[in-house]
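Hi there,

I know you've been waiting on this one. I reran it after we fixed the sequence typo, so this is the corrected version. Both the input and the resulting structure follow.
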Amino acid sequence: MLKLSLDALQILDAIDRRGSFSAAGKALHKVPSTISYTVAKLEDDLGVQLFDRVGPRAELTVAGRALLDEGRHLLRAARELELRVRRVASGWESELTLALDSVFPAWLLGADVQAFREVARQTRLRLVSEALSGTWEALLDRRADLLVGAAGEGPSGGGYMVEPLGTVAFVFAVAPRHPLARVEGVLGREQLAEHCAVAVADSARRLLPRTVGLLMGQETLTVPDMVSKVRLQCQGVGFGFLPEPCARAAAARGELVIREVAEHKPDESFWLAWRTGEDGAALRWWRQRLTGPDTLQRWWQALG
């Protein structure tokens, strides 16, 4: 007879996350006696102690931790099965996750989200931010269903489909008061090496992280997204390459100076990307909504 149930694993997970039986009961909308009975029965059935009780706190034993670590795989599999069944029944995904490259803040999709909610209220939408290789990794690791503005070439091995959004040039920019703004002529490695670069951190956990426009041993300030990078460069904190539309707009306001450098950053291509074989109604809606020659142009104008 099977001694484990998804309900019991869910209770163990809630206790571990919340720190106590009572807090887990509130999170799961169950009375404390139900939580205590389920844990006690599971411990009795398995013949092991799962929690150490220290006052109101409950901490997993070594055996309890081993059980929950494996049990969480079962919980994720059960959730994925439930999502697939609902998707088959309705045609609309119960949940869809969009991963935006950190160049593009989530608020750019505000009008699109409103339009989506009018036709797909049954689909729970999540917007997350990733950067560089981490954006592609989110798709391959199933943390995201659609990449929005994924930069560069995707990883080898396939398993995904792409639709081009467009290409943008990058220019080198510094604040007017930055020392590099006053250096005459084309800026070379020698001049750049003396100052701090501002770079967006790659969010990859498994794939090889990308580094863009940095010198070996360069002093670097790492930031989470492009908006932070632009603002910090406007404040004179450091230098770096920026999308030309953003840099030109800041230069027109007197916040940045665009300089010529000896080593240019290549133009960057941006993509929509999704896993091969997945074609739910919500995914199709977003692909159709965001595919078009004016999508990137509208975003750059909003960011300017």
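Quick highlight: The mean pLDDT is 88.

Best,
R. S.
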